[in-house]
Automatic annotation (TrEMBL):
One of its GO terms (molecular function) is sequence-specific DNA binding. SMART domains: HTH_ARAC (SM00342). Pfam families: AraC_binding (PF02311), HTH_18 (PF12833). Residues 178-276 form the HTH araC/xylS-type domain. It comes from Aureimonas glaciei. This is Transcriptional regulator. It comes from the Bacteria.
Length: 288
């Protein structure tokens, strides 16, 4: 069963060391996402409508909000994967234009050949996370070196001029779609179905779906699930809120539905995810 071996979270975003032996559903993330093989079988991901390999000599590169899935085949051996979810503001400290990592075209291809330097840093970071799970400073230093190597290898970073493009795109969002986005982000648990969301936006279902996906490059359902997942990850890693309360706040009818959603999107049960984040795990019982 797939599970997280270690999770690190900070200003950089998060890094998860995942032991994967089952597929993940089609989903997305609000930050650039890099997948690197640590050990085990060669495997593959579906990025948009393309199957791309993850091997010792390749990295899977996923732009912010780009739909993807882990395309694990039944009976295929497990693979340990280092999954990076990196915040644009953190990257901006290295190069101002690296804030463009939040743009939909930061990576020009969804797969690329790694170097010996990238492979070495991948293994060093994974080893540090396992051997020194509490050494956050060391993890961030290794992650910084790894991300610099990845960006310099796989992006035309010297040509990226993101600020005006991103601001123009943000200012051009249809106010009806912006209203729907604000509702999703502020109270994802209150969004019960897409028809109601379309009505609240003042649009027919078909027009709403078409305009939403044209604007944000993902469907309303995928966007809702991204927001639910990111809020769930934050709450699970934070370690203070019981899972039952997280599930209820995010709109899941039962804790079991929340656990399944989390596993299908994050590659781990919330219990394991919290435990390997160095925090105290809690069960699903109602708090006293």
């Amino acid at each position: 069963m797939s599970n997280a071996l270690r999770v690190a979270k900070g200003a950089f975003g998060r890094v998860a060391l995942l032991d994967m032996d089952r597929p993940l559903v089609r989903h997305a993330h609000p930050h650039c996402h890099v997948l690197l093989k640590v050990e085990g079988a060669d495997t593959q991901f579906s990025v948009r409508d393309r199957i791309v390999p993850l091997r010792d000599d390749s990295a899977v590169l996923i732009n912010a909000w780009e739909p993807h899935a882990y395309a694990h085949h039944p009976g295929q051996p497990a693979t340990i994967i280092l999954a990076l979810y990196i915040e644009p503001k953190w990257l901006q400290a290295f190069r101002p234009n690296w804030r463009g990592s939040g743009a939909p075209d930061f990576f020009t291809d969804s797969v690329g050949g790694t170097t010996h330097h990238i492979v070495r840093l991948t293994h060093e970071l994974a080893e540090a996370m396992v051997q020194e799970p509490g050494n956050a400073a060391a993890h961030e230093l290794l992650l910084a070196e790894l991300m610099i190597a990845v960006i310099e290898r796989f992006t035309p970073w010297q040509d990226i001029v993101p600020s005006l493009r991103l601001r123009a795109a943000a200012s051009g969002v249809d106010p009806r779609i912006r209203r729907a986005v604000d509702l999703i982000r502020s109270a994802p648990g209150e969004v019960t179905d897409m028809d109601s969301l379309a009505r609240d936006a003042g649009l027919s279902r078909a027009h709403f779906f078409r305009l939403f996906e044209t604007t944000l490059n993902v469907s309303p359902r995928v966007y809702l699930n991204v927001v639910r997942l990111e809020q769930a990850v934050h709450s699970v890693v934070d370690g203070k809120e019981p899972f039952l309360r997280i599930a209820d706040r995010l709109g899941f009818s039962t804790p079991a539905h929340f656990s399944r959603f989390f596993h299908d999107h994050a590659g781990s049960s919330p219990t394991a995810f919290r435990a390997v984040s160095g925090l105290t795990s809690r069960d699903f019982e109602t708090p006293r």
